[in-house]
Specification:
This protein has 286 residues and is α+β, with helices and mostly antiparallel strands. It has 6 helices and 12 strands. Helix 5 packs across helix 6. The model has no long low-confidence stretch (mean pLDDT 95).
Length: 286
């Protein structure tokens, strides 16, 4: 956060320095925006193969084979969810929110991909439908489905508020991944990573640049839909902040369950192929 009163005087060329136009860090012209038409067509005649109801202030895992779809659905009331993804073949390959943010921006919607961690850096899932795409960016700079927040966690809660709170999304995801893998909690925790904040409405304040949240516009029936590019393990936490209108990491907010449904299409989308791992040779100049 920048200081209210800078200790150093403006240089003579301050205006010129500030007027330098920005340059996009990662031009994505070589990443053509996918044509969603064959993906949407592949849903015709699909069949639901599994579903998981995520209880409030808890998390659960689910499996999605490559070439299948999954939806995260609001079923009872406004509720945000924190999503982790791992490669089912190698959980060390996991969702890389920072690089996804660098490639697609602070908030995701249909046509954006969720990218995996280095050294793999390949698409894990493609967002194929977003019933909240009408929201865009509001007057405060807020938007939904962010990749800027890290997940609520008990360590930050302890730092800012004191005490021991065990139903932060970080802890929820840790318990869920431990149950799925059989790993001890201490090992499972190391696999939990920064999330896609599904349905959460967030942004940065214009004056201080601080991360903010506001009441999610999600309502029962809204969903965010994905196409799995590789075999996936997913974990979703129904955040203890509910719709995150006022607080998180709390038992005071009204919370609701979230539903995950997995669908198998009759045939793969036309032209789709599972992505290979990144082509960099990993020699690092030696």
């Amino acid at each position: 956060m920048k200081p209210d009163r800078p200790r150093h005087a403006l240089p003579a060329d301050a205006a010129g320095r500030k007027a330098v136009p920005p340059v996009i860090c990662y031009p994505v012209e070589r990443l053509p925006r996918p044509d969603l038409t064959p993906y949407l067509a592949a849903r015709d005649g699909w069949s639901r193969v599994s579903q998981v109801l995520i209880p409030p202030r808890e998390a659960a895992t689910f499996a999605v084979p490559a070439g299948h779809f999954f939806r995260i659905i609001s079923v009872e009331g406004p509720q945000v969810g924190d999503l982790n993804l791992w490669s089912a073949a190698n959980p060390a390959e996991r969702f890389f929110s920072g690089k996804t943010r660098a490639l697609h921006g602070t908030h995701l919607s249909a046509g954006d991909r969720m990218w995996s961690s280095l050294p793999h850096l390949r698409p894990m899932a493609l967002i194929t439908e977003d019933t909240l795409d009408w929201y865009g960016f509001d007057a405060f700079g807020g938007a939904v489905h962010d990749v800027i927040g890290t997940r609520c966690d008990p360590y930050t809660h302890n730092l800012l508020s004191g005490g021991q709170y065990h139903h932060c999304c970080h802890s929820n995801l840790t318990r869920a991944f431990a149950r799925h893998t059989g790993l001890p909690l201490a090992e499972a925790e190391l696999a939990v990573h920064d999330v896609l904040n599904v349905f959460m409405c967030t942004g940065f304040t214009r004056d201080t640049g601080q991360y903010f949240m506001k009441a999610s516009p999600v309502r029962p029936g809204d969903h965010l839909e994905f196409f799995a590019e590789i075999d996936l393990i997913g974990a979703l936490s129904a955040c203890p902040g509910g719709d995150c209108a006022a607080e998180h990491s709390s038992d005071g907010a009204a919370c609701h369950p979230l539903l995950v449904e997995v669908f198998r299409p009759r045939q793969a989308p036309a032209g789709w192929r599972p992505p290979a791992a990144n082509g960099y040779d990993r020699s690092h100049g030696l």
